[in-house]
Amino acid sequence: MSSHEIPEADEQLPEKRETAEGAVEVSEDPFADPGMPPHEHRKQDIDERAARRSERTVALLFTSSMLATIAFIAAYVAIPVDKYIYVFPIGHISALNFTLGLTLGVALFGIGAGAVHWARTLMSDVEIADERHPIEASPEVKAKVMADFRAGAAESGFGRRKLARNTLFGALALVPLSGLVLLGGLGPMPGTKLRHTKWAKGKLLMNQNTMQPLRPEDIVVGSLTFAMPEGMEEDQHDFQTEIAKAALMLVRLQPEDIKDKHELDWSHDGIVAFSKICTHVGCPINLYEQQTHHVLCPCHQSTFDLADGGRVIFGPAGHALPQLHITVNDEGYLEAMGDFPEPVGPAFWERG
């Protein structure tokens, strides 16, 4: 080859290296696979005492996870929801939320760090090179995989390292309890709270706008008046919760226009009282049509007939509006004869 000739693209030039004696050594294949470097044993592979120290470290991490899970449950039970603490540099935060987050984080970290330390110090770390194989495994390959799995299980020390194994089982068994306990954060069991409101026998009907007790003459034909039970104040901590169940609307009809006898018996001089809470999704009803005696929920257009027991005549609502039995006391004020006879608002699975 002359100095002006260029070698073909697929023609490899031999690699030339000069040795210490000055001779030139020619490599036949400059791109040969150098292979894997020699395996370096870890201290735990050659020193059983070091291996036992690592096992104790793993067990300590798993045990810390178990203790943190127990602390999580204890904190959930013992720490009040309204207790606050100062944490620098965050400031004042909920003591319950802070403790739950801290203990759950330690519990999860203990499992993760223990598993990582186990893998790095006790499980086999011998480098293995394997050739690519077709996606569909042959019986020989399947047998090799199972053999490798059994060998890996043996080399992991899972059967021999009982202390690490048992503490791992304990940590994994306790951590799910954190999730079960958190279900209690969905709120207390409702008990009979959905079935009862602030209305009771003898409670005066208070005008929700003026906060004054209502007389029959305050309710004129064609008007829609909103009322709430006597004794409720807007500055009470549970006002919004209770008014969402006890809100009442009053309409005065001509007694001869009332079609339902039960409704007529529970009214006073044509004044009927119904729950203001729509039985679809609980929106407040505030639209009244005088000629038809219909009220309309503005959210999804459920329509109720106040002259016929508050029954649904249109829309997605599932049942009629509950009626409140009312009368007039000796002083001439409207008062309730008891609570609503059924739960107000949307239906729920226990509703009879």
Automatic annotation (TrEMBL):
Residues 1-49 are annotated as: Disordered. The keyword Acyltransferase does not apply. Residues 38-49 have a biased composition (Basic and acidic residues). InterPro entries: QcrA_N (IPR045603), Rieske_2Fe-2S (IPR017941), Rieske_2Fe-2S_sf (IPR036922), Rieske_Fe-S_prot (IPR014349), Rieske_Fe-S_prot_C (IPR005805). The keyword Oxidoreductase applies. It is found in: Cell membrane. Residues 264-335 form the Rieske domain. It is a multi-pass membrane protein. It comes from the Bacteria. Its cofactor is [2Fe-2S] cluster. Belongs to the Rieske iron-sulfur protein family. Iron-sulfur subunit of the cytochrome bc1 complex, an essential component of the respiratory electron transport chain required for ATP synthesis. The bc1 complex catalyzes the oxidation of menaquinol and the reduction of cytochrome c in the respiratory chain. The bc1 complex operates through a Q-cycle mechanism that couples electron transfer to generation of the proton gradient that drives ATP synthesis. This is Cytochrome bc1 complex Rieske iron-sulfur subunit.
